[in-house]
Amino acid sequence: MAPEYVPGKCNIGARGRAIRLATGLGIIALFVALDVLALAPVSAASRLLLFVPFYVGLLAALEGTMSFCVLHATRGTYDLHEPTGTAFGSSGTKMDVGSDEWKKLDRRKARLMHLEAVLGALVLAGLLALA
User: Fold this and answer.
1) What angle in degrees, to the nearest 10, is found between the helix axes of 14-37 and 100-130?
2) Distance CA 60, CA 14 (A)
3) Please, are residues 55 and 102 in contact by the beta-carbon 8 Å criterion?
4) pLDDT tens for each residue of 50-72
5) Domain residue spans of the chain
6) CA atoms in the 13 A half-sphere facing the CB of 128
7) Taking the model in full, what pTM does it have?
8) H-type helices in 1-131, by residue range?
9) Phi, psi (degrees; rounded to nearest 5) at 78
10) What is the pLDDT of residues 19-49, one digit of tens each?
11) Which of 8, 17, 29, 130 is the most exposed place for a label (fewest CB within 10 A)?
């Protein structure tokens, strides 16, 4: 089934989802491994700095699982057939969202995803700081 833009629900296609999910899970796994292997003797307070990479990783993983890119929502665009998963450069398949109401729905969804990523990152960093 061909992907379709749905305001506040779907603004990226299968390739974008796969790239974002793999990137997000990779970032989270890398920094959990770094914490377990290298930061064990470091103080718990300094381990809370892992919040930042966890936030980035969780946001990317959420984008992959929810078929929704917060950067596209911010820019008022969508790209269901993006050739790469990067936000940089130009894509010949990127389209502008046609309605202000649709842009508002997209921005609302993006804010919710940012909040979810922040809360998740706080939980992950907190658990590792307590471990």
Assistant:
1) 20
2) 14
3) no
4) 999 999 999 999 999 999 999 99
5) 14-79+95-130
6) 27
7) 0.90
8) 14-37, 44-47, 51-66, 70-75, 100-130
9) -150, 155
10) 999 999 999 999 999 888 876 677 777 888 8
11) 130
